[in-house]
Write a structure and sequence with these properties.
- By secondary structure, this protein is of the alpha/beta class.
- It has helices spanning 41-48, 74-78, 96-106, 111-124, 140-152, 170-185, 197-203; strands spanning 2-10, 16-25, 30-34, 56-61, 64-65, 81-84, 158-162, 189-193, 207-211, 214-215.
- The protein has one domain: Rossmann fold (3-Layer(aba) Sandwich), CATH 3.40.50.
- The strands form two sheets. It has a six-stranded mixed sheet with strand order 6-7-8-3-9-10, sandwiched between helices.
- The longest helix has 16 residues, at 170-185.
- The structure holds adenosine-5'-triphosphate and magnesium ion.
- Magnesium ion is lined by residues 41-42, 86, 162.
- It is a peripheral membrane protein.
Length: 245
């Protein structure tokens, strides 16, 4: 699903902020990414959602070696990836509903389906009363929930979440993590960057640790041969969620 081989990243002419990063995420796996502030977590995630290109090394994403992939093929790969940004990146001129509906509409889903799945998902995260609100009128935690809903609504093959629970209370954080775990059970590969060691301890998933741009014990993360396995992408439907959410 994802393979990094001796990847390095520098911004401009600055020092390398990521060095010798090698790991593999098997299809359907779930990993946490932890490390101190400034260790390079967001930078590593940017490489995964194609916002940055590595300064050296090889990245294979969803079966595509990126250095050999034509630029025009990248948007299609990017559409298979759901991203929760550390700074949310909501569209402030769109309503909460329209923000979450956007990826479904871009994918050409019919409007009845969009209405149903967006309303159900936003109700599930407790934002039913805010469907018509603009993001600027939401609390930080509410914005984060909208960003999470937008990232998962298309049932992407890979979910990359950068501190997805940084602004929400413990109960909602656990609920959100259970959402990721439920999606993971349905086949979505998940990588979640977090400082929240209580969540990490509770969920008992493998943890990748970054220190000053290097992965601790990175050899441990090579989990076998790269896979081209393709998991069919389907929109997230409320029925997919366990009743005990
Ligand atoms: N756009 C940029 N241009 C130049 N340097 C950057 C840029 N973004 C990040 N950096 C540098 O890269 C290093 C890693 O930053 P990054 O944001 O990846 O850390 P992080 O582990 O996500 O930290 P945090 O826990 O605070 O989110 C830092 O030294 C930072 O100053
Ligand atoms: Mg960060």
């Amino acid at each position: 699903m994802v393979r990094f081989e001796n990847v390095g990243l520098r911004y401009g002419t600055g020092p390398e902020v990521l060095r010798d990063i090698s790991f593999e995420l098997a299809p359907g796996s779930f990993h946490f990414l932890t490390g101190p502030t400034g260790a390079g977590k967001s930078s590593l995630l940017k490489l995964l959602y194609l916002a940055e290109r590595p300064s050296r090394g090889l990245i294979t994403l969803l079966g595509h070696p990126l250095s050999k992939t034509p630029r025009k093929a990248l948007p299609a790969i990017r559409r298979e990836i759901g991203v929760v940004f550390q700074d949310f990146r909501l569209m402030n001129h769109l309503t909460v509903f329209d923000n979450v509906a956007l990826p479904l509409r871009l994918a050409g889903q019919d409007e009845a389906h969009v209405q149903e799945s967006v309303t159900e998902l936003l109700s599930w995260v407790g934002l039913k009363a805010k469907l018509d609100e603009r993001p600027l009128r939401l609390s930080g935690g509410q914005k984060q929930l909208v960003a999470i809903a937008r990232a998962v609504v298309t049932r992407p093959k890979l979910i990359i979440a950068d501190e997805p629970t940084g602004n929400i209370d413990r109960e909602m954080s656990l609920r959100i993590m259970r959402l990721f775990i439920e999606l993971n059970k349905l086949g979505t590969t998940c990588l979640v960057a977090t400082h929240d060691m209580v969540l990490v301890d509770r969920l008992q998933k493998p943890v990748m640790e970054l220190y000053e741009g290097k992965l601790a014990d990175s050899g441990w993360w090579m989990e076998g041969a790269a896979s081209n396995a393709v998991i069919p992408a389907q929109p997230l439907m409320p029925d997919d969620l366990s009743p005990d959410f």
